[in-house]
Every structure is written in structure tokens, then in C-alpha cells.
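Hey L., structure's done. Input below.
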Amino acid sequence: MNKNFLTACTFAFFFLIFSNQLNAGIDFFRSEKPTNPEIDSLIEVAKNFYEIDDYDRALQHYNTIIEKSEKENYSKGLTKAYLGCSGIYFIKNKLDVSTSYLLKAKEQPYVKKNPEEMYQINFREGLNLHALGLYEEAIKKYKEAIAVSNAIKDNEERINKLVGVYINIGDIFQLNNETDSAFYYYKNAYKSQTTNLNNKFTSSVSISELYVENGKLDSARKYLGFAKYYAEKLNSDFTDAVYSQVNGKFQSANGDFSEAIVSYKKSLLLNEKLDRPSPSLYKLLSEAYQEKGDEQVSNAYLKRYVEVKDSLEENRKRNLKVPILMANKDNENKVEKAESNTQLLIISFGAIILLILMSIYFYIKIQQKKALSRRNETVQLKKKLNSAFDEITELATSNSPNFLSRFIEVYPEFYNQLISEYPNLTTADIKLCALMKLDFSTKEIAEITFCSLRTVQNRKYKLRKKFGLETEENINQWIQNIQIQSLVHA
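Output:
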């Protein structure tokens, strides 16, 4: 294709964008209504339902606001409703839907005039990426939110916004086991002049959890008391669920497993009420019942943990669309697409052809990268499996209480086949099978579990009866031959 023609097409394309942006701005100032009392009233009603955790009714009102605002060309109404819907779908763990509403909000003229709304969009984009474990991308969005917040004139509001970001950055450091940095952000947030009770609650409960993880229970108790005070002030199912889970961790670390179980169950009920799947609570309950010596109940919660975690896999795959949605919208914002001007139809047609050629070029490049990625996939998977194997072997040899739950995460198909075909297996039985699967000898198992050689041999004999194995059949070899798909969820 002629180079001059491509240059002309490119020039025409950008000229069209500029002229249509100008026209769009003129149209906005001609048609946008400054206020709409009816819709503003509905926004407050929806906000009230949101704040009392009645998300279904809040969503109904936000949908009504969207419908009315589209008819009235009311940008403020659309912005508030899109942000409200995004928050609700975030709580429901539908991050792709949440992000789609944020992208719609970002297009609204009202946002360009209100830094508070732009902050909310950047902050919520960070939240969605944060929830996906894309921490570097999340921090970038959080920093964009901080930059936007500098334009907020109200000092109190600006501080509240900044503190909200600090808490989330602290959480990322906590997830990355960077304790000192996490404490720095959490404590700065708690000691700030924020008047937002949610910020006070989240920072205090996060500090308490961090102290629990580090075994400093006196300090954990102090901040847990602060968190309880703010949770009671907020009177929200969401904050009560968070508080109860952290309180359960504190009680468990303090050796009071009965109280821990009560707190975990309360948190579980509140999360179910909010339609928030929380597999970690089933795992915590399993561990608490195991400490109490109730293996049957512990095993039941462990099974439930695996089921819920597996059911969330489909959501996880769908939510992986989030960074793609954001990237596409960022690119669109850099080269905004507008309607064609009738006087420049021929040139715009050339620009479209250019875009198609560029798309084909980039598509080919992407396919080449995917092919290379597929070739490397097997090698990477083997490396990951070796790393996970080393980790669970170390947990086994140290007789760690986390050994079994981590083993199940690495070998879910092995575990699922065992419990589906032999539902009467106890947690101790499953642990013995796991050790055999890792190819530990009878002598090594005896040393790990602090049992005699005879005891392990008797336990293997009882297992043989449960599995219905013939006398001449080797139980270790039988365990090794169970078909698995390695490292599906590691």
C-alpha cells in the first residue's frame, strides 16, 4: 500500500476524532441538564439501600435511574447509577460486570467535571484488579486515584479518599507477606484525621489481623476492640462478617477453638446473606474442628472448602476479562472513536481500512505470542509442580497442620476421587493416603507422625480393607496409580 495514502488516511482519521470531540462537547453543553430533582431523589434512595446492604433493591433503583437518565440525557444520574451497580457487582464477585459499569461511567461528561467521581472510578478499577491478584496493576490504579484526589477541594473528603487508598495498598503488602510495609500503611490510615467510619473500621481490623498473623495477641486484642466499636457504629452485615472472621482467627490463635467456630459460622451466615462466596471460612472451620479433635466435622468442612473453591473457578475465568476490558477502554480513550462526518466519508473509509490492516497485523502478532506461550506451557507447569511438590513435602516432614489443606490444593483430582469413591474415609485416612502419594515409606511416615512402625502398618491394613484390596496387591502402588491432573489449582 502506498505510504502517502496511509499518511493521508491517518491524518484524516485523527482530524475526524478532533472535530467530533469538539462537536460532542458543544452538544453536551447544549443538552445536559444541570439538575433533575426526581432522579437526584432516586439516587439518595438507592444509596440508602446500598448502605444497609439491601443490594437487590439498590440494584432495582439504580436500573430505574439509568432508564430515566438516558431519556433525560442526565449525565449525573448515569454516573451515580453506573458506580452504584459496579459496587454491588464487586461485592457479588462479578468483577467483569463491575468493570463494565466503571467503563460506562468513565465515558460520562459529568465525570470530567467532578474529581470525586473520577477518583471513585480509578479506585474501583484498582479494587477489581486487587481482587484478581493483579497487584502491580492495582497499585497503578490506586496511584491514579491519589493523583485525582488532589483536585478535590474539600479537605476532609480528600483525606478520606487518600486513607481508603492507603488501606488497600497495605492489604497488598500484607498479601505479599511484607509485614513492615503493611503495618506502615494500616497505621498511617488509622492515625489519620479521617472521619470515615469505614476507613477506621477497615484499618483497625486489618491491623488486628496482622498482629494475629505475627503472634502478637495482646496488640491484636487492642485493635480488635477498636474494630468492634466501629463495626457496631456502622451496623452493616458486611463489616460484621469481616469482624467475625478476624475475631475467629484471634480466638483460634488464643486456643479458644469453640469461640473461633462460633465467630466463623457467624461470618459464614452473613457472607451467604450477602451472596459472597467465602471458601476460606470453610477451611478455617475445618482447621478449628480438627484442633478440637472432631475429625468427622473437620472432614465435612474440608470437603465443602474444595467444592466452593472449585465452583468459583468459573467466576475466576470470567473475571480474567477485567484487565482486557480496562486495556481496551484505555486505548479507546487515547484515540476516541466518533461518528463519521458526512462531508469526509471517503477519507474516513480510508481510515477504517487502515485500522483493519493494523488490527490484522496485531492479531497475527498476538497469535504468534500465544503459540510461543503454548510451547512453554508444559515446561512452566512442570517447574510449578516441582516447586509445589517441594513445598508440600516440607510441610509433611515438619508435620505441619497446613499440610493436608495444601496437598488438596495441589492434588484436587486425587482428593476428589478418594472422597467420592470412599466417602467413609477420615481426615487421618486421607492424610495417610497423601503421605503415600508423596512416596514416603512406612518408616518415614512413622517418624513424621510420631507413631510406631507397627501403628502405621495397622493403619495401612485398615485402609486396605476400606479400599477392598486383595492380599497380594501393594497399597503404595495402588495409591500411586490413582489418576490425577496435577496442579490444576496450585
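The two ends are 50 Å apart (CA to CA). The first helix runs from residue 3 to 31.

-- N.
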